[in-house]
Amino acid sequence: MDDVGARLERVIGELLDQRRADASICPSEAARVVDPEAWRDLMPAARAAAGRLARAGEVEVTQGGAVVDVAGARGPVRVRRPR
Length: 83
Fold this sequence. Notes:
Number of domains: 1
CATH superfamily: Winged helix-like DNA-binding domain superfamily/Winged helix DNA-binding domain
Structural class: alpha+beta
Number of strands: 4
CATH topology: Arc Repressor Mutant, subunit A
Number of helices: 3
Strand order of the largest sheet: 1-4-2-3
Mean pLDDT: 96
CATH class: Mainly Alpha
Helix content: 40-55%
Largest sheet: 4 strands, antiparallel
């Protein structure tokens, strides 16, 4: 994992810590914090960071309210603390 990946993981955790316990974030929010100008370029890395955190049991990735594997998910996903 590179420095950007580690920063994205940290920011995902920080953003979730700032929200209600049952709230979720979009991976794009973390990408925008890490690089407000080129956040779109970071989206694959942000989704990958969410996937690593999910495999570690620190977060869940959801789509349409259901927990999914981000690697196979097409379209928008959300990230939340495990329930």
